[in-house]
Amino acid sequence: MSRATTAPTARADTGLAVRGLTVRFGGLTAVEDVDLHVDDGEVVALIGPNGAGKTTVFNAVCGLVRPARGTVTLDGRPLGPTAGLTRRGVARTLQGLGVFPGLTVLENVVVGVPAGEPRAHERARKELDVLGLGEHAARPVGALPYAERARVALARALVARPRLLLLDEPAGGLGHDDIAALGRVVRDVAARGTAVLLVEHHVDFVMGVSDRVVVLDFGHVIAVGAPQDVQRDPRVEEAYLGVAAAGGAR
Ligand SMILES: Nc1ncnc2c1ncn2[C@@H]1O[C@H](COP(=O)(O)OP(=O)(O)OP(=O)(O)O)[C@@H](O)[C@H]1O
């Protein structure tokens, strides 16, 4: 059995590669020298206790924060600021979903089709059907329960047919059945060759859906490995799972 390790999985020329990422907010070093890699067709979860630096890494990948040091590349080319993400085949969902409550379900998903690509409405309808939202197409998103709104946000990301999908706490606020359904969707997306990076607190979801788990603590990677190996790693138990068992936050 392989053990969880802190060694980077280094293949910088395909997929997402984060190398030596250091981000500072004034005098605070939020993440330091973080390496991670997400290959095509792979689901990688970034976990860690509150304040470990997960969102900071995610935001650096999205171009929302500027690293003090390090690089973020997709297929060997630097990932630029947010505006360039769609062109590079990157789609993401955000905590709080970011859907437009006054627009219909269909309109929200049409927004996700990259500008200039044909048959936007047809594509959006297909995506809604795949995610079981077809019957809600004409309803305002604001009228839907949270779980359906979360699926609209996911549909909007997927309709872009991303080659890299970034999910920020996708299981947050969902019940057991919706989390199971989300897991199936994420695995289907990866099976089509998409690289998936997710930040998530829900340990069972992470363990069920991920090929690899990267554990952050105090801004450093403390373990990388298959979910079952990471789960047994004493450093992780101490830093994260033990904390989660004791109540979630430190
Ligand atoms: N914009 C900011 N300005 C100053 N400090 C920040 C900023 N964003 C994050 N931090 C700090 O950086 C560290 C890492 O925060 P981050 O939000 O990345 O952690 P996290 O693992 O995502 O936490 P959580 O699970 O609570 O979302 C924390 O100490 C946090 O207070």
Automatic annotation (TrEMBL):
GO CC terms of this entry: plasma membrane
Superkingdom, natural source: Bacteria
Keywords for this protein: ATP-binding, Nucleotide-binding, Transport
Keyword Lyase appears in the UniProt entry: no
Short name of any one Pfam family annotated for the protein: BCA_ABC_TP_C
GO MF: ATP binding; ATP hydrolysis activity
Transferase among keywords: no
Signal peptide, first to last residue: none
Residues covered by the ABC transporter domain: 16-243
Protein name in UniProt: ABC transporter related protein
Organism this protein belongs to: Cellulomonas fimi (strain ATCC 484 / DSM 20113 / JCM 1341 / CCUG 24087 / LMG 16345 / NBRC 15513 / NCIMB 8980 / NCTC 7547 / NRS-133)
PANTHER family assigned to the protein according to its UniProt record, in alphabetical order: ABC TRANSPORTER ATP-BINDING PROTEIN, CONSERVED COMPONENT OF ABC TRANSPORTER FOR NATURAL AMINO ACIDS-RELATED
Coiled coil regions, renumbered to chain: none
